[in-house]
């Protein structure tokens, strides 16, 4: 027997956010848009053919969405190959990537862009968190120059 689906949790305004979405912040700290998660392989492949910036902790791929795609909001995807390690190591690395994206992309990302964070072997899971945050900020600045 499968368990019943849980309803989407309401936000402060009473409306439910889409699954996989995170509120973004404006300079004054108010929520303005959402950051959605990339789920389709085609979106990851499009991002792989676009701009990329390597950092010590991970690789950032970024692309501006085309005219035929929805231009509102940010989308972000996370991936770690088996080179990163076993399932536990890959999941740990992806959790850390999700957290740095949650902390920085709403403020430093550009609407209408897709971002993919790719974990690196031995460094994504072990690099100090403040350095991962600095890596993402630097990578975003370089990608958007």
TrEMBL record:
The organism's place on the tree of life at top rank: Bacteria
Keywords on record: Endonuclease, Hydrolase, Nuclease, RNA-binding, tRNA processing
Keyword RNA-binding: yes
Residue ranges, annotated region (Disordered): 1-30
Short name of one Pfam family: Ribonuclease_P
InterPro entries from the UniProt entry: Ribosomal_Su5_D2-typ_SF, Ribsml_uS5_D2-typ_fold_subgr, RNase_P, RNase_P_CS
EC number: 3.1.26.5
One MF annotation (Gene Ontology) recorded for this entry: 3'-tRNA processing endoribonuclease activity
GO biological process: tRNA 5'-leader removal
Protein name, as recorded: Ribonuclease P protein component
Organism: Mesobaculum littorinae
Taxonomic classification: Bacteria, Pseudomonadati, Pseudomonadota, Alphaproteobacteria, Rhodobacterales
Gene this chain is encoded by: rnpA
